[in-house]
Amino acid sequence: NASRFSEVIDTVMRDFVEHINIPSGIALNEALLENLFMIMISILNKIPIFVVGKPGTSKSLAMGLIQANMNGEASENAFLRSLPPVDIFSYQCSPLSTSDGIEQAFQAAARYKISAPDTICVVLLDEVGLAEQSPHLPLKVLHKVLDEDHEYTLVGISNWALDPAKMNRAVHLYRPAPTVTDLSKTAQGMVQNAQLSGFLRKIARAYVTVYEGQKQQDFWGLREFYSTVRHINRMLAEEKDAQLNARVVMNAVQRNFGGKPKDMTQVLDVFYDTMGISRGGAEMEDVVELIRQNIKSKEARHLMLLTKNNAALSLLFDYGLRKQENTEVIFGSDFPADKTDLQVCLNLQNIKLCMAEGRTVVLVYCEDLYESLYDLLNQHYTEYGGKLYVRLAFGTASRLCEIHRNFRVIVVVEKIDAYNRLAPPLLNRFEKQVMERSSLLTDVQKQVERNLRQFTSIYAAGQGAKKPSMAELRSCFTGFHNDMISSLVQSLPEVSDIEETTLECINRLLWLATPESACRVMSMRARNTALQQLRGVDAVHTYFKKQHHSDFITFAENMFEPWARDNMGVQAQVLTFAPMSLHSGEALGQHSKWKKVTTRTLHELSSERDLRTAITDFFDTCSHGSVFVLQCDPQAASFRRIEHARYIIEHARSKFLRGRWQDIKDRKAAEPKDAKESKAPEGKASEGEGKAVEGKSAAPEGKGAA
């Protein structure tokens, strides 16, 4: 009968799988059991197989266990020593995969088979479903491989089924979504806490409710469930006499089901109601604290920050979550000469060094790197001699690289991309948090923000008029967007006087006002009067008399020195309505007091290295009065490239100023006491300033600051 037949199959599967060493903390659930058995049998009989299932259904884990255990005569188990060794040739598929890359994996397996005839060569196509999204149609090469007999076999892992033409040519193992019972059994093998064990079924039921009710399919997946269970288990183990209470549940859910702030209250309610725990007075933690906890935890998943306009990149440093000295930011370059495999290799080498040193890596626009980092992001680490190693892959080549236990990866992505474009297999590997400027304002800063929004509303539409549209605001303030005012408020030091801070912000905001909007306010007396009554600000007088909007040279002549503080120079971004002349730097040197001007045009630079070299040379040779001008034409260079260039300049300037501050500190420490007492007033030293201007931007001043 069917029941007896099922028992026989289960017995046979366990007879095979019991010879595989499964590390502690990994539960041999039904999914892992079937995956191990089917993949092992298919490999031994050289039958191609596709394993299909949602993220977290033990597909990659099964392949990792087979690779670690099936070593022929070198295997630990007597039964496995009787079987031939297995060598796996991995190819990490992605939406950028090509047929040449996949063919190279098969060719590498065929060449190795010639030199090792007793070895079973396996070509593993990891996340093969992503390759279907490639415009190069790389999977067309599989038809020939699947139809012919070869000395190697194929294992494909995917989150969804491929087209029938491929699936019908191989064994197809489909992993359905696990039931509540499956999940609770799996969790039982992951924890040792008796208190938590009684709640595992309720946690599984809560997860299933959240998973089935999410609006974006697979934004949260099985890894969220497993991570939540491990997180609660850790919290209970770390505290003596700890209780599974509302605070523990809230922290675990906030950490592992982040990325959708609007849904968080609903998700928490599901967990509390299902687990039968009263929320009581437990308060939600702010996103900065959640990020800090993730970065400090060695057991946590790597972190993905969802943001707007890459705001999270600067906020990481502004809020002290990371320090420049122990953090490496890798920007995916779109300079023409950087769109090569060589650049990918250089970035991987950079990551490899950071892994060994334990430095945090922040990835921005690095889609080309993700396919090489899937094992790293999966945290599939191997331990040898007390050290951890992980596989980094590039095409068909892969290598085990040492990884420090403190190493962390932070990926910064645009929120809209995470919600609409990024693949679930990538999303599910991360602990996700939304980090936007508007969500980090203090109560005092929020009051300043409200004052500024009232000012911009009257400036754009007049007193008592309806709320201005985004188009009207952008016609008044260049580049206006929803987070601009929040960013402006956060750029100022700690707010001590709300009114004074509001006036300073208005002054800065007027620097971005368009000439025609200032003329409209000047021609509409009622609107100008309303602005004066609101904050005592004469916007027209400030714009035309106190500020300098007429031309670049006048701006530089009048504003560089007033904006410089502590003899450290100034950094400015200048927006123009027409392309600046290629001779603008020369004109600045001729018609202003800034004589030492270095000019570069962004779209004429072929690589990131060219820009880094130019800005490094500037800082190495700058002196009093030096200016660096980087001209950026948004039509010739993408917004992404301009953003990349701005980061390079800001980072180089920050490094330069840190060195300068240290030099000043060292000199003061070395000065005799008498010399310190007779020293000239600060700011009168002969070292002077330097200045730099970025693209459509102006930049710094300091002893040559950019």
How would you characterize this protein structure?
- By secondary structure, the chain is an alpha/beta fold.
- It is 49% helix and 14% strand.
- A 5-stranded parallel beta sheet has the order 2-3-4-1-5, sandwiched between helices. A 5-stranded parallel beta sheet has the order 7-8-12-6-13, with helices on both faces. Strands 14-17-16-15 form a 4-stranded parallel beta sheet, sandwiched between helices.
- Helix 2 (30-44) packs across helix 3.
Number of helices: 33
- Model regions low in confidence, pLDDT < 50 over at least 5 residues: 676-690, 695-706
Compute the separation of the termini in Å.
79 Å
Question: What's the shape?
Answer: globular
Instruction: Work out the number of β strands.
Output: 17
As a percent range, the share of strand residues is 5-15%
Largest sheet: 5 strands, parallel
Category by helix and strand content: alpha/beta
Arithmetic mean of pLDDT: 87
Helicity level: 40-55%
The gyration radius over C-alpha positions equals: 30 Å
Identify the strand order in the major beta sheet.
2-3-4-1-5
Structure summarized in a few sentences:
The protein is α/β, with parallel strands linked by helices and 706 residues long. 49% of the residues lie in helices and 14% in strands. The longest helix is centred in the C-terminal third of the chain and has 32 residues, at 639-670.
